[in-house]
Amino acid sequence: xxxxxxxxxxxxxxxTTLAHDSGAEGHTKATAAVTxxxxxxxxxxxxxLFMEVFNGTNNTIPTSVTYAGIPLTLLAQHIPSxxxxxxxxxxxxxxxxxxxxxxxxxxxxxxxxxxxxYNVNQTNPFGTAVGTTxxxxxxxxxxxTASGEIVMDACIVRAASRTFTPxxxxxxxxxx
Length: 176
Known about the structure:
Layout: E1 2-9, E2 19-20, E3 26-41, E4 48-55, E5 64-67, E6 70-71, E7 73-78, E8 84-91, E9 96-118, E10 130-134, E11 150-153, E12 156-157
Antiparallel strand pairs: 1-10, 1-11, 1-12, 2-9, 3-9, 4-8, 4-9, 5-6, 5-9, 7-8
């Protein structure tokens, strides 16, 4: 079983380049009801914090996701019967090192990944989302995007191990 959702980050428009706040990655893997890790957001203009939360225990999503004590907005969730993946974001997050706190109702196996971007459209930060759920050893989805946009995707699978190969012009940031 595989779930593959994809989101397109929209830039501010001509004259700016949508970019990843490199070196600001932060991820944690835990078996707990609450996990906390530090994440640093750079001092760039038009910032966005994007988070992926994977639950490998059951089909629930977090009850709360915060950065510097500020609640993030749930963008989307994909919930097969055996786990979940949810996407969260915060427009104009505070600059600097702050804690990301993810809370579930009960203890579970979770992986939390935070990404920072800048020069993101602050009014409409996301383009059209696409996704699929099914049974495949090589899940794929077709995405329509424009030059300068960033495509964020994630795949949650129910398998002992699975190897994924990034496609042309893709960068794999997390495999856990």
